[in-house]
Amino acid sequence: MPHFDAEDLIATAHALADAARAATLAHFRAAALGVENKAAAGFDPVTLADREAEAAMRAVLAARRPDDAILGEELDHVAGRSGLTWVIDPIDGTRGFMCGTPTWGVLIAVSDETGPILGVIDQPYIGERFVGGLGLAEFAGPAGTRPLAARAPRPLAEASLFTTFPEVGTPEEGRAFAALAQRARLTRYGMDCYAYALVALGQVDLVVEAGLNSYDIQAPIAVIEAAGGVVTDWQGRPAHGGGRVIAAANRAVHAEALEVLAGVEG
What we know:
Blueprint: H1 6-25, E1 36-37, E2 45-46, H2 48-64, E3 69-72, E4 85-92, H3 94-99, E5 105-112, E6 115-123, E7 128-133, E8 136-141, E9 144-147, E10 160-163, H4 171-183, E11 186-189, H5 193-201, E12 206-212, H6 214-226, E13 230-232, E14 243-248, H7 251-261
Parallel strand pairs: 3-4, 10-11, 10-12
Antiparallel strand pairs: 1-2, 4-5, 5-6, 6-7, 7-8, 8-9, 12-14, 13-14
Helix pairs in contact: 1-2, 5-6
């Protein structure tokens, strides 16, 4: 396990989030976003704000943590020699960003060979920051700062369930999600990373998604686990590589949801 200074990692994560706030807010709800489509088929947007925010974060890392590796969504992987990797997504929820909704966020994680050890979910426009790991589980927003704590157990029949896209993933994955949604009290869509933040805040019971990348989920894993929640894949295995993910407020509702989803192969 690599040696690290926890205080410096936390301070660096905040510096990254501050840099990304400035870069993203310079473009949010602007008349021209410079949107490009990265997908050969379908629609996978990237904006000038995505690229500028990631570049700003990488500049902070180059100055403060030059020996660490960097894995980001928009720019090339940077190899390191410290044993630590910064996993960053400058705008998780670019479609929401394009539409002016304040549910996108900046995702920042620090990982070692076991997975994420520190995570930040930051929503620049409403000024909310969720930090988890290395002894922290903290929410800071316009009303002040308080500890993060996921919800206590309740039956799946009383749970709130979130995902980003109604189709979830493949048709088979969509059917599994639909079966879970039929068992939950409330299902909501389109919140991107903000839904994971709400799990850590104690407002939401479950987030279930498929087709994620590591930069989509590593920060939420660290934040939710620090708040007392559970994040795995649909078979109960580690999820920091992405793919099919279930984030739960507690082990009881996680177990109920997992029983419904676990029948999907792979």
